[in-house]
Request: fold
Amino acid sequence: MFQYLSLLDAEDEKEFFTKIYDTYKDEMFYTAYVILQNKQDAEDVVQESFVPVLLNLDKMRSNSSRKNWNFIVTIVKNKAFNLYKRKKRKQEMEVPEEEWDEMDFVDEDLEIKTIEKEQVGLVMQLLAQMNESYRDILLMRYYHGMKVTEIAGIVDKTPDNIRHISKRAKKKLQSMLEEYGYFGSA
Reply:
């Protein structure tokens, strides 16, 4: 935080930034951690997210705290999803082609794991295409195993609302998967 405060000149700017930092840093971390499942990466995302906050401090002063949080959480989510995608691409590229011959492609466990990885990859691709609220709720509920009441507290909605959104999101994801040949009617 201190590196950011040194960039500000006016005392009232420093106070406002400190208030924003103290108010939202824990929620920002939790949001990033839900997506990344890695403490260090989540901390990095939070630190990176304060740069655009700092650059938009004047605009944020006139906004409500709700609008400020929406702005901040959007930054955090975007940075976290971008980091997640970069790391995923890096992981996919880690096995050099010259080592492919040494791998046992006939191994059933490897084949099952490969199919599962492809399915997870497809689901993540489809989630990325869904609207943000559907994607976030599905990830928090089913990928991270969060309770409906926890999610409701994070996204500032009622538990019943979360259940309804979750149900609609699952239907949407199922129809998207059916387009790829999964869950098709027999």
